[in-house]
Amino acid sequence: MKVSQPPQESATIAAIDLGATRIKAGLVVDGVIRTSTTTVLGPDDKTQDGIVLRLDAVFHDLCARGNVDPSAIAAIGIGAAGATRHVEGIIAHSPNFPAWSEFPLRRLLVERLGLPVHLDNDANALTLGEARFGAGRGYRDFVCLTLGSGVGGGLFLNGQVYRGAFGMAGELGHITVVPEGFPCNCGNRGCLEQYASATGLRNRVRRDDLFGGLTDTALADPDLPRRLFEAARAGDERCRGYFDDFGYHLAIGIGTILQVLNVRLVILAGGLARALPAFGPRLMAELPGRGYPCVNSVADVVPCALWEDGGVLGAAALVDEAQAGKS
Ligand SMILES: [Zn+2]
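That is the input. Now the predicted structure with zinc ion docked in place:
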């Protein structure tokens, strides 16, 4: 007699995108975000204890909103801004939160919530998300660059995220594109993220005094890059020049990456990937000459597919990866 098995119920994952200024969280089932919340980080969240309490509250709020018992959650995935040692579940260094140094976030959350927790940096999580659900589907090898306040990177090689000796491979924002260029908070000079990010655009605006004596607070306005992009699109010559330089430096960085890895796909994510129409022409004009053209000119450079959902779906993909035994 044939006994039919009941269909396997899909697992619900709590997925958390822990950014520099806010937490986006979602309950994810089969790659679909069912319930989501956004929480702005405050002064109390700067300490290790503070952010653990905040994440506990976010998790329970998410479960309440989604009408899901916390004990029914299969696992928690977290993509966090900063340098992260994935295997140990430790945030090694966070540029925005100095107190989160050598921070054993995974262990503290496992002890507090009693669930499996999988932690990685936000760029690796996003790369996995694009591999499973986005622009990287069907590719065995690709590189993902996140163009935001800084530049993050993820390497997807041989069908999985490549993390290096202790989980810090793919810090592509810190490859040198100007040998004696601007100092970077990583300790190097002339890093890609000093030129092809919101930080790079702010550096230019400050140096050129574009708006006549803008204060640091005004320069920090998250909307500033979008305003520069709109001005460039409207034909402002100086803003067009900023994005032209952005594309030029990005081409040097991507050219170097392609010479090392010879992948056929580069995915651009993060808010500034939306400015591709402004920096793309210079990027694509410059790229073939920045290494062997037969390598550089066959790579497609495309925007991501997941956009604002990439962080949360990427965090969920960390759980899938761990369950498949590939992390
Ligand atoms: Zn750097």
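The chain has two domains: 12-127+309-323, 138-304.
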